[in-house]
Description:
With 508 residues, the chain is of the alpha/beta class. Helix content is 31%, strand content 27%. It contains 14 helices and 27 strands.
Amino acid sequence: MRTARVGDAPALLVAGTTSDAGKSVVATGLCRWLARQGVKVAPFKAQNMSLNSVVAPDGAEIGRAQATQAAACGIEPTAAMNPVLLKPGGDRRSQVVVRGRPVGEADAVTYRDFKDRLREVAVESLAELRADYDVVICEGAGSPAEINLRAGDIANMGLARAADLPVLVVGDIDRGGVFAALHGTLALLEPADQALIAGFVINKFRGAPELLEPGLDMLRRLTGRPVHGVLPWLDGLWLDVEDSLALSVDRGPMRAPLGAQTLRVAVVRVPRISNFTDIDALTVEPGVDVRFVTAPHELADADLVILPGSRATVADLAWMRERGLADAVAARAARGLPVLGICGGYQMLAGRIRDDVESGAGEVDGLGLLPARVVFAPGKTLGRPRGTAYGQEVRAYEIHHGAIEVDFARPGTEPFLDGCRSGAVWGTTWHGALENDAFRRAFLADVAAHAGRDFACAPGTDFAAERTARLDALGDLVEANTDTGALWRLLESGAPRGLPVVPPAPVF
Length: 508
């Protein structure tokens, strides 16, 4: 086992040329690789903008990606691992969550008022982790070359400068133009920021390595920085993605069904979809075909329609009505075809919704498919509940402002987890319920019976084992395709010194 230096533990920042370039993949792979070396390692993301979040054991709401990275490290997630979480509620405003608790709403302009305090929180949180762990792997946000935002940056070069971190920049070659993106990212940084860029990693490469080598050599000569790794394209590696950019990415082939038929699941991709990672467990189930849909005709052949979480329930419900999706879902329910609502999706299924918090719309009609009424409260409910359904234990987590009252006196209405069920319509605020294997199989069997499908659940599907296998695959990816010796030296020696400045470097 290699040991980190004593005291202020080494840390490394993984930045990217763009969103979805592969920062999370590389950071998670590094975490897994180090943990398998016996290193006590922790993840960190100073500021995360994502609608996929989770409740940590300490009760804090943090980005789902950081919880997965903590799993890669073999540790439980904490508030310090993602001290600032922004949850967009529209094109201009986001809820600001600090150390796991919401502190207010802000737009791009008013958010500047938060920045000084948030920078302190980020630096303090990183220092906390560096005091408790041997190594901290930090993940940036967006691109470090967003020069219009550099003055208030707390997640990329602002953090690297404050904590004197060496920085790896990841570029996605599958998008095209990766050499220009890597060189341009470096060139747009001011000299003091450039000094911390230690090297590059190229992600999603497919093809003959010898064809890439001349470009790597030229990039080294132009920038004075090494390429520390070229990661090959691999399908279906990543669960728990941060944002809806990744919904179009192939997350692995559907596994062949055990029965005669597949089970077709249509997930309505509302504009402000949140916690769509709830669907991940279905994608690893043999014979379950999961699609994200935005039009009524895409529901026609679905055996199960899922209304997922939403950061803006009332606005997304209005969007569904405008597109005819609300009528299509109601028509399905009238025919006894299965519909599942999770959190915001469950709220949409209610008869009435009172929202003076998220949208300020007041009282509006829900879809009326469940005998329930929703009232949004200023305080957010955060928890890690347990319960039973179909005779199976269920562990989950909940994150919501809406409180739901169910009229169980309505004929045909019965409890379902924390929510209710009426015929073939189910609703719950619990996220992560489908990750419970026995419950998921029982639920899918019930769905198949209602849909009239000859579908058999696989008795041995283990979602936790699937996630572990993918984390190991990410660790293997980093170990086999990066210069791990050079990465060790970066961790042991810290930020590089004396690297050349690449023109044209702006002066801020």
